[in-house]
Amino acid sequence: MAEIFPFHAYRYNAARVDPERVLTQPYDKISPAMQDRYYALDPHNLITVEKGKAQPGDVPGNNVYTRAAQALEEWIAEGVLVREPVPAVYAYFQDYQVPGTRERKLRKGFIALGRVEDYAAGVVFRHEQTLSGPKADRLELLRHTQAHTGQLFMLYGDPERRVDALLEEVSRAPASLEVRDEFDVVHRLGPVTDPAAIERLRAGMADKKLVIADGHHRYETALAYRNERRAVLGSADPNAPHEKVMMTLFNTHAEGLTILPTHRVVSHVRGFDFGRFRSHLAAHFSEHSFSFSSDAERANRCAEFRGELTRRGSEQRAIGIYAGGGAFYLFVLKPSADLDALLPNVPAAQRQLDVVLLHGLILERGLGITAEAVLAERNISYEREADAAVAAVDRGQAQLCCLLNPVRIEQVVQMALAGEVLPQKSTDFYPKLLSGLTIYRLDGEDAWIHKAG
User: Fold this and answer.
1) How far is CA 372 from CA 281, 369, 377, 378, 393, in A?
2) In 353-438, which ranges are continuous DSSP H helix?
3) Is the model's pLDDT at 92 over the cut of 60?
4) Which residue of 128, 209, 225, 299 has the smallest Cβ count within 10 Å?
5) Which span out of 68-82, 282-296, 332-346, 436-450 was modeled with the highest average pLDDT?
6) Mean predicted confidence (pLDDT) in 245-270
């Protein structure tokens, strides 16, 4: 099923640059402020390639894409980026603290090339819809640079953890790279070059199906580029560099995976009346209030409310609502609620997601916020941190916020393998994978052909 390959990665030369000053977060997580900071850190920061700045005088021969390609060529010529002498896969471990808690986790995966597969082949599965704008941007960048600098975050199922055992074995060697990012995540990278170990890894992955956790736009860009090259060449050469893409793969049965919720912040709803809104929900949800009359009491009640949201969410369908006014509210779906009748056009698997209840029963039916309005972000914005969502209401920038429990990893996999697509902003896998740890250059890669035995 899943075919993986070692590769001659290009990597930053630690003798020439400080890795912590040149690596970046994924392009779609880089805010304008982060972009400015990356530019200021080092002239060789990957930001020039990953998410360059447009200039007023940009023309077809001089723009973000041509400058990205030029930067890569110059950095290679200068020895800032160097090509690994032998093909390798890379053990990639991330040591991090779960946001909002004191818990630290260690997530263990590996970087390799994976074959670019059509979704219809039943090897790679998505769980999100993609947008045309980001795909067009990434495709133009790939055409110019002929390089993949960012990682695809892929999931596979290995209940026996045979691949994990191999990673544990190779991880005993000192990491060739260790960096701490701006979110206090420690990233460790170690190449695996032993052909026998690589073969064991390839064999362990051969029967696996892959689910895209993060990087849907990047994957579909690789797919589009593969198809372009096939059309130009008039054939499909399985060993051609464009038939593969760089992936970071994690076992869903291993420890260390974290999905964070993405909370909804609601504003600009005409005729908003919180009392009427609560009355509307009463038909399908039981209401639990956590009221307060002072700042000190508010802190205690907020902690109780958030704890109860988590506790209830492990067994029931619970959604937190805050609209100011001296109380937090928890709405729990009643056992009598007939979701088949209430959400007849929603697949049964999707009805098991709290975010689907939120959008279908609370936002659309309760507030009149349609799916089209959500897509256009006319009434909805998103916050990872619950405190930030609550603060938006307190500042008067929002009418209410909706707090969610995270989607479970098994739900993501189940939905993807069933061909279902989750609603927008359903998952937030944490932490992100640093861009630039390894770079896959299509025009600099020798075909690696597996020879049995």
Assistant:
1) 22, 8, 8, 9, 23
2) 354-357, 365-367, 371-376, 386-394, 409-417
3) yes
4) 299
5) 68-82
6) 95
**E strand or H helix at 109, and its extent?**
strand 104-115
Helices (H), 124-176: 132-145, 162-170
* For the chain, domain boundaries: 4-258+430-444, 262-405
In the chain the first and final C-alpha atoms are separated, in Å, by: 19
What's the rounded mean pLDDT across residues 222-246? Answer: 96
| pTM for the full predicted model | 0.91
Residue 139's alpha-carbon distances to 145, 339, 440, in angstroms, are: 10, 41, 15
Please, which residues have CB within 8 angstroms of residue 382's CB and are 6 or more apart in sequence? 262, 263, 264, 265, 425
β-pair partners for 105: 96
Cis peptide bond upstream of 431, omega within 30: yes
Strand runs labelled E in 163-255: 177-180, 186-192, 210-214, 244-251
pLDDT tier at 453, thresholds 50, 70, 90: very low
Residue with tokens 């790679």: 124
Burial of residue 59 (number of CB atoms within 10 Å: 0-12, 13-18, 19+): exposed
CA dist list (Å): 16 to 9, 38, 78, 343: 17, 17, 9, 58
**Separation between Cα atoms, residue 226 and residue 204, nearest integer Å:** 26
Alpha helices (H) in 234-285, listed in sequence order: 274-281
Neighbours of 285 (CB within 10 A): 24
* Strand, coil or helix: 452: coil
How high is the pLDDT of residue 100?
Answer: 82
Rounded to an integer, the average pLDDT of 410-420 is 92
